[in-house]
């Protein structure tokens, strides 16, 4: 009797696990569809005429497909200029953010100085303040300092984000042992050499994750460029696409074509840094 009860209990546990796994995969599949279907619809609609985009019932595949949307976008608008400005600004912002956040996170994690906890608490609490709240004060500060040059002004908000500093500090505490730093100091390594030769290689996964996050934040920004950029020749990609959408007739066909092309740099950055991104996101998830 005991053997039958044990076998039945094990079968029940396996059945529950199987049911839980089926529900998990069903939920993940539904989540995938929620995120993927709008992207697939945008890609498909970028090859349709404007009248076909709103056809009822909607058709997933264009019949026939056309490249007129892409020709109209590239021939009638400075799309490549928008793309170049957005990419350059995003790359500069990402490099500055990665370096400064790594330095600040290392300092908060491994150095003792007066007011460290207070400074970190103030910095960390700024995460609760929406960017829209500080847009006007930030613009006034930039304008009074006469630093409204588009390339400089577009980089300012993304140079040292609080989230990046917090992320680097947490990862440094977990991945950089104090004994290793002390041994390097005994061998005569300078503090900056310590950071460059020992800390940075150990922070590579977190740096990749922060780089992807910083690039996407800067590349996709609309609100800040909308405030600091006034000349059409200095438009970033989100501003340019917004101008197309706000034009007479709501040029959805050109907007969708622009959105598809705009996704290319983001996808390239993701695929180049995907290994570091996944390692950075999963770091500390499992106790050693």
TrEMBL record:
Domain ABC transmembrane type-1 residue range list: 83-273
Subcellular location: Cell membrane
PROSITE patterns assigned: ABC_TM1 (PS50928)
Pfam families recorded: BPD_transp_1
UniProt KW keywords: Cell membrane, Membrane, Transmembrane, Transmembrane helix, Transport
Record field: transmembrane: 22-43, 79-106, 118-143, 149-168, 254-273
The keyword Transport belongs to this UniProt entry's keyword annotation: yes
Highest taxon above the source species: Bacteria
Recorded topology in the membrane: Multi-pass membrane protein
Protein family according to the UniProt entry: Belongs to the binding-protein-dependent transport system permease family.
Name of the featured protein: Carbohydrate ABC transporter permease
């Amino acid at each position: 009797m005991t053997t039958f009860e044990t076998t039945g209990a094990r079968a029940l546990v396996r059945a529950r696990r199987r049911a839980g796994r089926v529900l998990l995969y069903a939920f993940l599949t539904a989540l995938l569809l929620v995120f993927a279907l709008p992207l697939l619809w945008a890609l498909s609609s970028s090859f349709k005429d404007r009248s076909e985009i709103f056809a009822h019932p909607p058709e997933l595949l264009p019949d026939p497909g056309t490249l007129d949307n892409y020709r109209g976008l590239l021939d009638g608008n400075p799309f490549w200029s928008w793309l170049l400005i957005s990419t350059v600004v995003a790359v500069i912002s990402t490099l500055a953010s990665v370096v400064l956040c790594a330095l600040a996170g290392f300092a908060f994690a491994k150095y003792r100085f007066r007011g460290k906890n207070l400074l970190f608490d103030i910095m960390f609490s700024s995460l609760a303040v929406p960017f829209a709240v500080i847009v006007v004060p930030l613009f006034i500060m930039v304008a009074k300092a006469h630093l409204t040059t588009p390339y400089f002004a577009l980089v300012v908000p993304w140079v040292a984000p609080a989230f990046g500093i917090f992320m680097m500090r947490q990862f440094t505490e977990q991945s950089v042992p104090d004994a290793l730093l002390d041994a390097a100091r005994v061998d005569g390594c300078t503090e900056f050499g310590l950071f460059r030769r020992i800390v940075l290689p150990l922070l590579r996964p977190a740096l990749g994750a922060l780089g992807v996050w910083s690039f996407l934040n800067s590349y996709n920004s609309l609100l800040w460029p909308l405030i600091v950029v006034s000349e059409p020749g200095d438009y970033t990609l989100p501003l340019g696409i917004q101008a197309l959408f706000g034009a007479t007739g709501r040029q959805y066909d050109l907007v969708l074509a622009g959105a598809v092309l705009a996704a290319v740099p983001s996808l390239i950055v993701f695929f180049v840094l995907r290994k570091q991104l996944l390692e950075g996101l999963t770091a500390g998830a499992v106790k050693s």
